[in-house]
Amino acid sequence: MSNARNLANLLGTGTQITTADITDGAFQANKNLIINGAMQVWQRGTSFTGITGGQFNGPDRFMNILQTAGTWTVSQSTTAPDGFGKSLKWECTTADASLAAGDYFFAAQRMEGQNLQQLKKGTASAESVTLSFWVRSSKTGTYIAELEDKDNTRSISKSYTVSSVDTWEYKTLTFSGDTVGTLDDDNNRSMDVNFWLAASSTYTSGTLATSWDATTASNRAVGQVNLADTVGNYWQITGIQLEVGDTATPFEHRSYADELARCQRYYSELSWPSNHFIFDGETSTSVYYHYDRSLPVKMRATPSSSVKSGSVVTSNIGDGGVSQVSAVSDDLVLEQRRPSSTSRSYAYLSNFTMAYDAEL
Fold this sequence. Notes:
It is a single chain. With about 350 residues, this protein is mainly β. It folds into two domains: about 30-255, Jelly Rolls (Sandwich); about 265-355. It is about 5% helix and about 40% strand.
């Protein structure tokens, strides 16, 4: 029976469900440890240019880690393999054909330890995991994917080959379980999934660490091509799945709403309509005005906050005033203001959007 058949179809036709249909992962929920693997959610925007350093941009939960390895544009692409609507595309706009020692470039997703306890890492029964994804590039050759244990400074790398230019290729890589070093059971950063795109001799001069070991820089990305060597080089990816076991199963497609909520745990935005009043009227200088609003989901931790767009317009706001809405917990936004005079006082938000960041 094909894995492409879903449970509803089977029940609707009266077809008997076999043990293999269940155990091969066709109907397993929440098996994918990667968030936003189908590149559905792009809260920060869909195109960023002039990228030369490490930052979160592009699809939610994916970070570019970049050190002096060219200049890049990251964008949302609708060129994707069958079954997917979007992909992440990196394109080189300023080349670096000769990487200096210490230079590197990779895309990463950072993961909480409490979401990885099923890996049984650091025990005798540590589980293997399989990484699968669709990739497309203008540059053929060897690329490296890496799991990096941040709690215990350990890592493991696997190579894959882009065989044909401008062609979607499906890759699967199995990483053995690690019997050394347990992962912290908390909401902090424990493991990174890294997709290398360029690496200097600092990271390629040793022997590729295809088994778990203490992280050694020279063993991390041996054989990696330099995607930064020519303007116009690009690399695209979608359908990323990391699951327990030594076999890749069909990609777990989650609804946009489900994936958005998972992403909002780490980054969220709140927008207010034009000329939205927080308060307006005559009052005493000893009285504070409070305005609060719940965040869409409970965030990983108390987030930092910044104004993404718009402004706060105020009159007669004194020493109790703040220039922007402030996040005071992982699920609530609170603003406090005190007028500076008994004359008419007001504060309103003009086309205002706040960003809240609790990324790992």
